[in-house]
Specification:
Blueprint (H helix, E strand, L loop, with lengths): L1 H11 L17 E3 L3 H35 L6 H30 L2 E4 L3 E6 L5 E6 L3 E7 L2 H6 L2 E7 L3 H13 L1 H18 L1 E7 L2 H18 L29 H25 L1
Antiparallel strand pairs: 1-2, 2-3, 3-4, 5-6, 6-7
């Protein structure tokens, strides 16, 4: 049932079931997915959020219906109708949010080739991060206490160019008070999103990191993002060098043309100097 709904939503939202392969050798392609434990980790947060929502909205709805039921001027069917509508809304959002958490987990993809990587996530707002190994500056693994309990971690790939926006936003925060601080925080988040790809919720973060470090080292040893295995010497144009003993014989007509060109160039140079004065 969930897979049928997933295919329907993907078709309506025009989301491909799988992202395209990033640039590189197809034979070296490795595909990773978020761990099943990551889904349970997300559902734990969902349970906490639903408990708070039902406690707040359910309490408000119950109090409102009770007060209307005690009001003699209100028809008895009105509070019952409000209770049914409000309860139905809470149940529908419960089912919908449960499905959204599962769908977000299913639509999360991580792909790595010998030259680049691609991360895609999201359903309604699909986001893709494509990073070439030549631009990677740092690869790190982050794991909080709760993630450690579930046996998952986040592997972050950082690229160059993330410092400018943060520095500019810091200046805004110093001069703009609370508004500037809010702008600074948002700008820093945007800068991180633009210059960072995250393999979120994987249970083999160290394996992925080691694979990337090996391929990154090959790319940098080869230079210019071109691995030694994929380089094609036949595509390098040959360098032509004239023999040292070669002699050039100019004809009289050719020398005459060259002399005329030289005279015209000298005349143009003199005219430009006169105009400058």
């Amino acid at each position: 049932m969930l897979n049928v709904l997933k295919n329907f939503v993907a078709k309506v939202a025009c989301v491909p079931p799988e992202p395209h392969d990033p640039m590189g050798d197809v034979q070296a392609l490795r595909v990773f997915r978020a761990s099943k434990q990551y889904l349970y980790y997300r559902y734990l947060g969902w349970v906490v959020a639903q408990f708070a929502l039902w406690l707040f909205l359910g309490g408000m709805l119950l109090g409102f219906v009770t007060s209307m039921s005690e009001d003699r001027t209100v028809e008895p069917w009105i509070p019952r109708a409000i209770g049914i509508v409000g309860g139905s809304f809470l149940i529908l959002q419960l089912l919908f949010s449960f499905f959204v958490v599962w769908l977000e987990y299913e639509m999360r993809w991580y792909k790595i080739t010998d030259r680049s990587l691609r991360v895609r996530f999201g359903v309604w707002h699909v986001r893709e991060h494509t990073v070439t190994f030549a631009n990677i500056q740092n690869v790190s693994i982050q794991q909080g206490p709760l993630q450690r309990l579930f046996g998952i971690a986040d592997m972050r790939v950082e690229t160059a160019g993330g410092g400018g926006a943060a520095t500019q936003s810091a200046s805004v925060g110093l001069h703009g008070g609370l508004l500037g601080m809010a702008i600074q925080a948002q700008a820093q988040r945007n800068a991180l999103n633009m210059h960072e790809a995250v393999f979120r919720g994987v249970d083999n973060a160290e394996e992925i990191r080691d694979l990337m470090m090996v391929r990154l080292r090959r790319v940098r040893d080869a230079g210019l993002g071109e691995t030694m295995e994929t380089a094609e010497p036949s595509t390098i144009p040959p360098v032509f060098t004239a023999p040292a003993s070669a002699e050039v014989n100019w004809s009289a007509a050719t020398l005459n043309v060259l002399m005329q060109l030289r005279q015209e160039a000298a005349a143009l140079h003199a005219a430009a100097e006169n105009a400058a004065r």
